[in-house]
Every structure is written in structure tokens, then in C-alpha cells.
Amino acid sequence: MNIVLGVGGGIAAYKACHVLRALREAGHAVRVVPTASALAFVGTATWEALSGQPVATDVFTRVDEVEHVMIGQRADLVLIAPATADLLARLRAGRADDLLTATVLATRAPVALAPAMHTEMWANAATADNVAVLRARGLHVMEPVSGRLTGADSGPGRLPEPEDIVAFALAAAAAPAGAPEARGASGAAGFGSGAADEERPAAAPAGLPDLRGQRYLISAGGTREPLDPVRFLGNRSSGKQGAQLARAAAQAGAAVDLVAANIDVAVLADLPPGVRVRAVETTAQLQTACAELAPGADAVIMAAAVADYRPAHTAEHKMKKDGDAGLTLELAQNPDVLRGLVAQRAAEGWGAALVGFAAETGSPGRPALELAEEKLLRKGCDLLVFNDVSAGRAFGSEDNEVAILAVRDGRAHVAARAHGSKAQVSHAVIGAVAALPRR
């Protein structure tokens, strides 16, 4: 795609460099159009070096090419990050007094905005009114997150992380015309207009279903089974995909419980407010937490990598080497947590959708996808998200590629595929779960 990356004049402008790099690495051509104030934070040389394209801020540069119109006409997507309070006000007024506002006014492509400003500015009635009007016109406005702002202040208004901005923008570009917050060819409103729009609760970001009023239970990370007080049997799961699923569900408006098995603190610290985290270590602890929380959920997504086996005996003290002798371990099989939830749902009659994850490497003569299809039928869940982890793929990576499997006429089949950042994959999974018929 040909993407215009607009940059407003805020301290968060440095994050747009990471947004630009992610878009370029995904194969998109990106033209950066900063405001004059934005260049006080990140200079022209940086934008031109990262994008490989010229940078201008005013409508008089390259007048012979009529760039203030042509840039918008040629764009497949316009993304502005950060969108400051001043820029939102100018866009709402339909101003065209610099290259960026003129580009937005001239384009018929989807426009995505990632606001960033101080909490008081975001909460101001003028900003709220500007955002409501822009959304009513069909522009996609992302919700800022809560966190550290300029100086010692903290609160709502922080620019979301670059990978979330990219996922939001690409979802906006893919949104069908006429969908909520989707910008049609004429720029017509997706929500309608008038004061009624201003009274609506915040809707889900473009590309995500509206999950307000629902509760999602998500497990993530990798369980660990202790051998002794200092050693354990574990796996290579980082928990990043499960954390991104929790983020996406929360962004869509759901109340989220995240059962976190040995996830790095930095990953958990980046979760949006309102995601309730219950830390567990072993498979037994994860099973107990999920069995307790699942009955009240609308959907249960089991993204955690659960150990199939545990030591039959755990040493009370650290095991010592015994000369040159090796060590033989006796292992006991862990319970199948997902199958247990399927059985619990049938016995107790609650209606949550149940979604499993399968990380497969394949085996001699058995493709990984075939093994995943068999697992879906064996587990009895509603969907199975399969990824091929041969040669260490997916674990710890920022990207993922999955096939979402479902059952039709008693046979497993690939219902959808998704690839890209783990944030993008999470959006696809949450969409597939939300599309399941209610039980």
C-alpha cells in the first residue's frame, strides 16, 4: 500500500519512527508528512532516511506537482501518529493550512488517528467533541492508553505502542465500506451524525468486534513443573501472543481475566488498564484458575503452553550430582486442561466459547497441520488456533502466522489464516471468536 504517515507536534513523535519502520518492513511505501511543529521533535533528515522519500510540511513545496492534493489522492491509507489536540481540532474544522491537513481533506482513503496529549487535554469537552465529530465523519480514532506522560504526570492520553498503532491502522484500511468507523469512497459517516453519537460509549477500534458487556478469559505463557527448589521442566513460550490477545479483547471493550503462567514482568506491565492478571506457575494451578473463572465468561481462549508431563516426585532439596552418573526422571502425565473445560461446560451448562491453541512441529510422515486438525476433533473445543513452531518459529518472536481451525460436518478445516505482528494475529483471532454463534 501507499501509506501517508502524518506526525503531529508532540513529544511522542519519536514513536512514529518505530511505526514507520514497521510499515516499511511489512512492505508498504510510506510518505511522511509532519507538521512544522513535529520537526522540533524529530527532524527532516530522520524521516527522509527512514522512509526513502522527501519530506515537506507546507503547501508551497513542489507546487508544480500539486502535492497538497496529489499525496492524498495517491494514498491507500492515511495514518497520523501522534495526533495532538491542536491537530484534532484543525481536522475537525476542515482546515487545509499545511500539507498534512490538506492531504487529509483531499484523500478518499481511510484515515486513522492515534491521539496523544496530556490527560486534561484528552478529557476536555472540546477534544471529546472533536473526536466524536471526526468519528461520525468516518475517520478511525484510536483510544490513547493510560501511562507515563511528559514529566512526572501519568494518566490517559499516552500514545499506544507502535505495534498496536500499526495493527489498528491496517485494520482500518481493511475495514469494509459502511462498517462502523469505516470511511467510504465519499468520506461519508459510518456512525451517522448528531448528538446521539456523542452519547454513545466508546466503540471498539476499527478491525475489532464490539465486546462491551462481555468477559473474556485468556491463558498465556508457559507452565513450569518443579524438579526441586531451583529447577523445573518448562517450555519456550514467552506469553507475548496471549498478552496481545488480552490487549485486543480489552481494546474491544471486554472485561478480561488473564491467567499468566510465568510471563515476563515487562510483558505484563504493557497490558492496558482493566486486564485482571492471575499469576500461576504449574499446570495444576492454571487448571484450578481456569475452572474457577470460565463459568462466568463469554469466551475462553487457552493460549498458554501447558506442560504435558510433570515430575512424579519433586525433591525437597536441590538435587546434587552423583559422580559421573546420569539422572533418570520419572514423569507423570498432567491433566488435559482444555478437555477438562469442555467437559465442565457440558456438565454445568454454561455457554462460553472455548478456543484452544496448538503449537506443532509435525513428525515423520505427518504434517503439522494434520496433527492440529486431529487435536481439534480430539479436544472438542469450538476453534483451534494452530501455528507451526518448527525450527523455533513463533516462540519469543514479535511476529506469528496461524491457521484458525473449525469443525464443519464432523471434519476439521481451516476457517481463516492470519500472519503479521502478534497484535495483528490477535485481532484476527478475537474477530473469529466473536463471530462464533452464541451457545
Automatic annotation (TrEMBL):
Pfam families tied to this protein: DFP, Flavoprotein
Sequence ranges assigned to domain Flavoprotein in this UniProt record: 1-170
Positions annotated to bind CTP: D308, K318, P335, D336, V337, L338, F357, K375, K379
Chain segments carrying region Phosphopantothenoylcysteine decarboxylase: 1-215
CC per GO annotation: phosphopantothenoylcysteine decarboxylase complex
Annotated InterPro entries: CoaB-like_sf, CoaBC, DNA/pantothenate-metab_flavo_C, Flavin_trans-like, Flavoprotein
This protein's pathway: Cofactor biosynthesis; coenzyme A biosynthesis; CoA from (R)-pantothenate: step 2/5; Cofactor biosynthesis; coenzyme A biosynthesis; CoA from (R)-pantothenate: step 3/5
Entry cofactors: Mg(2+); FMN
Region annotated Disordered, chain positions: 182-208
Domain DNA/pantothenate metabolism flavoprotein C-terminal intervals: 211-434
The reaction(s) this protein catalyses: (R)-4'-phosphopantothenate + L-cysteine + CTP = N-[(R)-4-phosphopantothenoyl]-L-cysteine + CMP + diphosphate + H(+); N-[(R)-4-phosphopantothenoyl]-L-cysteine + H(+) = (R)-4'-phosphopantetheine + CO2
Keyword check for Metal-binding: yes
Single GO BP term: pantothenate catabolic process
Chain segments carrying region Phosphopantothenate--cysteine ligase: 216-439
EC number: 4.1.1.36, 6.3.2.5
Cofactor note: Binds 1 FMN per subunit.
Keyword presence, Nucleotide-binding: no
Gene Ontology MF: a single term: phosphopantothenate--cysteine ligase activity
Keyword field: Decarboxylase, Flavoprotein, FMN, Ligase, Lyase, Magnesium, Metal-binding, Multifunctional enzyme
Family membership: In the C-terminal section; belongs to the PPC synthetase family. In the N-terminal section; belongs to the HFCD (homo-oligomeric flavin containing Cys decarboxylase) superfamily.
Function description: Catalyzes two sequential steps in the biosynthesis of coenzyme A. In the first step cysteine is conjugated to 4'-phosphopantothenate to form 4-phosphopantothenoylcysteine. In the second step the latter compound is decarboxylated to form 4'-phosphopantotheine.
The protein, known as: Coenzyme A biosynthesis bifunctional protein CoaBC
Originating organism: Brevibacterium rongguiense
